[in-house]
Structure formats: C-alpha cells, structure tokens
Amino acid sequence: MALNAAGALYPYLPGIASGADSELNTLIGRCEEHLARMLGWQETTAGQSASWDSAARTFYLDGPSTSNGRMIQLPVKPVTAITSIHDDSLWGYGSAYLVASGDYTLVGEDGQVWIDPDGGHAWSTGKRNIKVICTAGYASGTAPGSLLEATLRYCSHVYTLRKGGHGRRTASAGGNSATFDLPPVPDDVRRMLLPFRCPSQWLS
Fold this sequence. Notes:
Elements: H1 6-9, H2 21-38, E1 55-61, E2 71-73, E3 79-87, E4 104-107, E5 112-115, E6 130-136, H3 145-163, E7 170-173, E8 176-179, H4 187-193
Antiparallel strand pairs: 1-6, 2-5, 3-6, 4-5, 7-8
Helix pairs in contact: 2-3, 3-4
C-alpha cells in the first residue's frame, strides 16, 4: 500500500486535469517502491515489491560488537513491535533459546534492541545467531510529513519527465522492447530522504 494517493499529488502537478487518479496511483506505487528500496527496505515476501509498509519481518543477525555488547541493530526502522527474539549459536532457534521479553527494550525509532541493565540475557557474538521477528514500517497515516513530501516531489519529477518524453519505464520498436530505470532522485529530494534511510543502507 502506497503512503500517498493520487489526491495528494494533484497540487504538485499544476495544470493536470482531474480524473487521472488511476495513472497517478500507478506512478506513486512505482516511485515509492523505488524510493523504499533505495532507503534499504526489501520485499516482505519473495517476488513482491520492496515496501516500507508496516508488516511482519524476520531478520537473522550477527551478535553485537564487543564495544557495544548490550545492543543489536535491526536493519530497518521504524520497528513498532517485537514478536520474538531467539539467540542460538546452532541456528535452530527453538523455544529453549527464546530471549525473555522482560530482558530487553525496543528503541523503535532507531531500530535497536537493548538488553536492560538488569536483564538476565547477554547477546552471543556469533554469525547469524540472533533471529528477530518484528513488525516494522509505516502503518497507514503514520509516515512523517517530510517523507510524504519527498515522495510527492519525486513523483512530480518523474511525471513531468515522462510527459516530456523522458524517463519512460518501457519502450518498444521493431518488435523489441526495453525496460529503463526510473530517473535519478533529485538532490533536494535525496536530502529530504536522508533521515529515513534504514541503518543497513548508505545514502550519500
């Protein structure tokens, strides 16, 4: 589900006639998928589009660094809930390796899980030892205004280029077809997106 709908995009496209909702919603969906992937979000199910929608996600993580042994960094943010965490060096992740929810605290806006000062667990440091099932992403109506603004600016940019004959996603000639990437994200939009990149993603 896209964060924006066609009605929000019309003010960014002066002169466009009403009644283009279907075209604009398709454009919004493609642009938001592109931006979500750029920020580090992946599909929640193989074969689906990358999405920053609120959804259940499963991550297999290495143990924390020795310099900050109480914290594990999830690869996305925001994280709104933890379903379970298992810490198992044998990668079985059975019930015996479930980390008690009372031992840790979620700092959701940063995508971090911290062992409490009085928590009874210590993260192991091996590769892929930690399995986290959580809910992460933006539920309907919860995305920050500046993220919505950035996506609408990019949608407007793409729409304007396409109407000018540039940046089309597909083209065909002589029985052959080709697929093109969406146009580069303008610098002002990229700067607006920086605070929303996932911890796993570098965005210059």
